[in-house]
Amino acid sequence: MKWLIALSALIFAVNLTLSLQILAVLPLSMKSHLAIGNSIVNSLLEAGHNVTAISNLIPDKPSDNYRVVQIPDVMKEFQDQEPNPFEYIDFPIFFSVIMMPPFGADMVKLVMKSENLDAFLKTDEKFDVCIMELFGNEALMGIPEKFNCALIFYNTYDALFWSDTISGNTSPASYVPNPFLWFTDNMSFKQRLVNTVVGLLETTVHYVLHLPWQRYLYNSYFPNAKRSFNDMYKNSSITFINNHVSSSFVRPHMPTQIEIGGIHVKPAKPLASDLQKYMDDATDGVILFSMGSYIDGTDWKEEHREMFIKVFGKLKQKIIWRYSNETLPDNPGNIKIGHWFPQRDILAHPNLKVFITHGGLLGTTEAIVEGVPVLGIPVFGDQMMNLMKTVARGYGLQVLYPDLSEETFGNALKELLRNRVYKDKAKKISKIFNDRPRTPQQEVVYWTEYVARHNGAAHLQAESVNFNYIQLFSFDVYIILAIISLIVLYIEFKILKIILRKIFKKSSNKKKNQ
Ligand SMILES: *[C@@H]1O[C@H](CO)[C@@H](O)[C@H](O)[C@H]1NC(C)=O
Ligand SMILES: *[C@@H]1O[C@H](CO)[C@@H](O)[C@H](O)[C@H]1NC(C)=O
Ligand SMILES: *[C@@H]1O[C@H](CO)[C@@H](O)[C@H](O)[C@H]1NC(C)=O
Ligand SMILES: *[C@@H]1O[C@H](CO)[C@@H](O)[C@H](O)[C@H]1NC(C)=O
User: Fold this and answer.
1) Which EC class is the enzyme in (predicted)?
2) Where in the sequence is the domain holding 408, given as residue range(s)?
């Protein structure tokens, strides 16, 4: 009996240390995408699993359980010359929707051009699970198909259209604003109308153009695949969503859509001593001004720079501005500039009063973790939506780029510094954000192991993953109902006509008889 217990304990121990062989596909090289992909990979490595990543980023130090199959920097190949980031501002929504299918197709082609990947695909290695970013690159499902492993997707944003479709989920247009639009979950009739039309356009482009294109690419790049594109599509297990309900609008998720918002936020590290002293000495507080990795302080137009300096010069607070030049012309003395600052760690300093940001999801999430009020100047992509959420949740304000002036920007900044409401709200949301049964890192590890344990976890999937576009939105039902209503209306109209004719005949007969 005793040895039986000992044996089962031993088996249990062996089971616990069993490391999974994981394949990670990180096709996008933008910082905001890699930050999420690499955080997922690191969580799995720390849990003792063995990861092979298809990525453009080679790790600094080699390790036993991490290996990279290097692919080219896809984003670099997309844009030869870097455009001024502010050029994206007036990008029409219609183009954003239409642009996705060719973007996704180009990305797949660039990734598949890699010779390293080609050689890797000829090996017969074994993997338990594949974790892949989903951003218009469904054709790359040929990679997990080749290795015959369970497939987990991740989304670097809230549930986007691709992830909703693959999970059989739908986003009701009545209260889930499209990320391309600038609405909240409380929409006027006109906004709901626009939201519905944009949603229909997106759905149609997705089913009519995007998925067939990806299916075509899948078939041409993976001609020996045993499982079809559709099989793979329906066979994906779960999707990690980079979102958390506390910082977002409440919306439906399937049990396969797992929130891991905050995964990239590491514990704060101590600041370098000069920066620490600079912030400690700022008894009136510090403002951090950083527009993410794409927009440097020097990218601003001259008039904007002068305006910022004028506003900052009138404040008691100190300002830390990511501005990549040796000097800042007309620096009023309270602005510290630099090529790079440890944003995440600065946000954790108790003297930090306001974070001026473009509204990227990485930065706004870091601000939530630390409970720092936000002043947003959105530029492109999802930034407007992130800031709409911030404003709706009451822990920040935003000024649109075309409206930027000494008055609008200065007033918003002063309001955030003066009014305690924003700080209190930010602290409250921070508490909710950090109050979870598992950290986002644990969430990733738990669900990845869960998928491996349950052979893909098909029991979590809704029947709707098997539906087509028409079934999913019940278009067929609505059409039949509309036809029946028309027929009924027509019959009623006919009957009414007969009755009216009889009545009129009678009255005219009466008149004649009089
Ligand atoms: C991790 O995977 C690589 C490549 O398949 C293999 O060489 C290595 O032995 C594995 N390490 C562990 C700890 O399983
Ligand atoms: C939603 O918006 C309407 C119109 O702007 C407003 O009257 C209403 O109070 C808002 N509802 C909530 C719950 O904020
Ligand atoms: C950059 O620094 C140089 C040298 O200090 C200065 O002359 C120039 O005005 C600065 N330019 C900008 C855009 O800040
Ligand atoms: C995918 O297919 C395999 C083999 O048919 C099956 O074992 C697994 O449960 C499926 N996974 C999902 C999520 O449907």
Assistant:
1) transferase
2) 273-434
Query: Does 450 contact ligand 4 (Cβ within 6 A)?
Result: no
* Contact between 463 and 168 (Cβ < 8 Å): yes
Distance from C-alpha of 325 to C-alpha of 370, rounded to nearest angstrom: 29
* Residue entry with tokens 């980031």: 85
Here the CATH number for the domain that contains residue 446 is 3.40.50.2000
Residue 268 lies in a domain: no
How many A from CA of 476 to the centre of ligand 2?
A: 34
Q: Is residue 5 part of a domain?
A: no
Is the same domain home to 55 and 133? yes
pLDDT at 46: 94
* Nearest by Cα to 438 from 244, 253, 249, 252: 244
Q: What is the pLDDT of residue 91?
A: 64
In angstroms, the CA 426 to CA 506 distance is: 77
Burial class (CB in 10 A: 0-12, 13-18, 19+), 357: buried
Q: How far apart are CA 134 and CA 155, in angstroms?
A: 6
Which of 263, 244, 29 has the alpha carbon at shortest distance from 133?
Answer: 29
Amino acid identity of 295? Answer: I
Whether 235 and 300 map to the same domain: the answer is: no
The verdict on the CB of residue 237 being under 6 Å from ligand 4 is yes
> How large a percentage of the chain has pLDDT more than 70?
92
Alpha-carbon span 305 to 285, nearest angstrom: 22
Q: Note whether residue 41 is domain-resident.
A: yes
- 298/170 same-domain check: no
Which ligand is nearest to the Cα of residue 335, counting in written order? 3
pLDDT for res 14: 47
Number of structural domains in the chain: 3
Q: Are residues 134 and 52 in the same domain?
A: yes
* Sign, CA torsion 147/148/152/153: positive
Gap between the Cα atoms of 194 and 75, Å rounded: 31
Both 43 and 131 in a single domain? yes
With respect to residue 338, please indicate whether it lies within any of the assigned structural domains: yes
Please identify every stretch of the chain with a pLDDT value under 70, giving residue numbers as ranges. 1-17, 79-93, 510-514
Say which amino acid occupies 7: L
Distance 514 CA to ligand 1 centre (A): 107
What is the pLDDT at residue 307? 96
pLDDT digits (tens, 9 = 90+) for 101-122: 999 999 999 999 999 999 999 9
* Ligand in nearest proximity to the CA of 304: 3
Ligand 1 atom index nearest CA of 64: 11
pLDDT per residue as tens digits for the range 413-456: 999 999 999 999 999 999 999 999 999 999 999 999 999 999 99
